[in-house]
Amino acid sequence: QVKLVESGGGLSQSGGSLRLSCSASDSTFSANAISWYRQAPGKQRRWVARVGTSGNTDYADSVKGRFTISRDSAKNTVYLQMNNLKPEDTAVYYCTVVGFNYWGQGTQVTVSS
To answer: Any bridge partners for residue 11, and if so which?
Structure first.
């Protein structure tokens, strides 16, 4: 089973930026698309962004134009650059391998107004 580790979360003021990282334990990661999800308190986990093996990307409407997902296959790492953060971005952020039930432990992002 692939082990995923998210990092980079923290506290930001509204309008600030954070960069999340998702690192994996083996090459399954680099051979598949990777998605970021987030779960706010009391709400369902929701999809945020996806990066394919060729670097193609998709975003939820709520983050389009503010977040950028990218990958470094040589490092088995996917990044989520989050700019112009809003209080509604507050959530635990998770990465996952698309098509597999592999999830990290999540990283908390808190945005204050």
So the answer is: 110
Give CA–CA dist 110/85, Å, rounded. 9
Strand partners, 107: 93
Concatenate the DSSP letters of all residues of the chain into one string. ---EEEE--EEEETT--EEEEEEESSTTTTTS-EEEEEE-TTS--EEEEEE-TTS-EEE-TTTTTTEEEEEEGGGTEEEEEE-S--GGG-EEEEEEETTS--B---EEEEEE-
Which residues are within 8 A (CB) of 65 and not within 5 positions of it... i.e. 6 or more apart? none
Rounded distance between C-alpha atoms, residue 14 and residue 16, angstroms: 5
Residue 1's pLDDT is what?
76
Q: Across the 113 residues of the chain, what is the mean pLDDT of every consecutive 10-residue run?
A: 92 98 85 96 97 96 98 92 98 95 93 96
Q: Which amino acid is at 66?
A: R
